[in-house]
Design brief:
The chain has 249 residues and is an alpha/beta fold. It has one domain: Rossmann fold (3-Layer(aba) Sandwich). It has nine helices and twelve strands. It has a six-stranded mixed β-sheet with strand order 6-7-8-3-9-10, with helices on both faces. It has a four-stranded antiparallel β-sheet with strand order 2-1-4-5, with helices on one face. Helix 6 links the parallel strand 7 and strand 8. It is globular. The relative contact order is 0.17.
Amino acid sequence: MIKVENLDFKIDKKEILKNIKIGIEKKKFIGIIGENGCGKSTLLKNIYRNYIPKKNSIFLDGIELNNYSVKDLSKKLSVLSQNQKITFDFSVKEIVEMGKYNRSSLFSKNFFKKDIDDALEQVGMLHLKESSFLTLSGGEMQRVLIARAIVQESDVLLLDEPTNHLDVRYQYQIMDLVKKLDKTVIAVIHDINIASQYCDYIFAMKDGQIKYEGTPEEVITSEKINEIFEIEVEVIKHPKNQKPVVIFL
């Protein structure tokens, strides 16, 4: 569904991504892990066209990314970026309604009311739908933005640290929700154990390159995590699902 071929990317002459090659199958949950500054978010920004590489390197459903109009691309991709700055005083409901702009020819607040209410209920925010978005806590804002991504009804969901600002209960609630959406998901995840529990396939990055890729069992080993993060760990199996669990020593 998504193919990245020989992607290089620089910012202010600094090489951030180096010869990235990845293929992502439809309806797989993909995790990208690695140290801060290794290029994870930059890779995601190239995939959703916030950054544009000098050569055609990214293909979605066989079509080069730059050949999509903004509106058509929004029907394919929805994005939850790491730093979304909203300064105007919209209500929670209005923020989620923005996810429907790609259906503007049909746009009607009443027409989409059920979709918006359902998405807010899924993330536990329906009771605050009339509240000002700017009065919410960081975690509440994050859940509203995920609801907005849900109502966009795209094929692919791109998440940059989706559990950022969430307490432990909501971290797992949101990941459970995303896992059940039946979409292709590509998520930058800072918590290795969350990546292990939820991802079908993981790309581990270091210094702007894909260092390792594979299933959680293939990527999350003591030796590889030590090399990627430069920290001593022990990896054991989860007692219930047998997924790798990282213990920091």
